[in-house]
Amino acid sequence: MPKRSEALEFERIVVPTPYAVGPANVYVFPSGPVSLFDCGPNTPATETALMLGLASIGLHPEQIARVVISHGHPDHYGMAPRLQALSGAEILVGERDLPKLADRSMLLATGKLLLQAGMPMEELVDMGEREQRLGELRPEVKDARPLRGGDRLAFDGFDLEVLHLPGHTAGHICLFHRPTGILFCGDTLLLDISPNPLLEPDPLDPTERRRSLVEYLRSLDRLSELPLATVYPGHGDPILDPHAVIEDMRSHHRKRTEDLASILDREGKSGWQMAGELFPSLEGFDNFLAVSEVVAHIDLLVEQGRAEPLTRDGVTYYRLAEPKG
Fold it and tell me: 3 φ, ψ to 5°?
């Protein structure tokens, strides 16, 4: 049966993904206009699961009027072009993630950042080849419309408020039903794992790297001030005690920051080198996640005056900061 709360009605459809994070959640709002929040990756298995899920609640894909994307990662938006072709659905995404859906320029800029973090070129090439073997996971999404924080999505009987909560990506959005405290949060909060603060260019200036964890911690501060009751994430089960999970996330990032502080020295290490020390024996996409994790936490140490960057041969290294005074 559809979940109802003060006229809010929705269904959760769980779809498979080819990623280590496991299945993804698609939230269906059957009240007009029929809308999805996220739609899963562009794979045959996902399409089958999604179509069966829609049929089980009496919907056909042709009825979908809107697909709202939480953020520009392929496990959340990949099926959008297929649904758009079937129904003519409008695709909406946070404005700062719009470039990820439109072309591959942001992907190329991310590759440059990984090289600057010390990842060897052969590892970067291997990562790309592994993803290509999984199929066309990053299809181009045409004519997507940007959403901004404070926008509202109207449905028959209720509306949802768009919250711009950057961190995991620059343009990550969540949908909030304020009367009930229900939040559809994409990858901003997850029950059993910490959302990775990903290494990526600043969409406002792709020549610069955004400080993803600094942004994410600010988003946690915003979430902690909201009257949250239940949070429905992009992966996994509903979060029934969101404020406890928020504090767990803060604690995790404090500990990881101290772990990195303990392996810094005065000579300097690259993000790639420190990722190898903290997470040995990784392969493929996991290397990207590990380097992202390291660089994001080093940003906090730099902000605290405990680490300082230096550049050698195009690679950024980090060392312990000189004591003041």
Answer: -80, 135
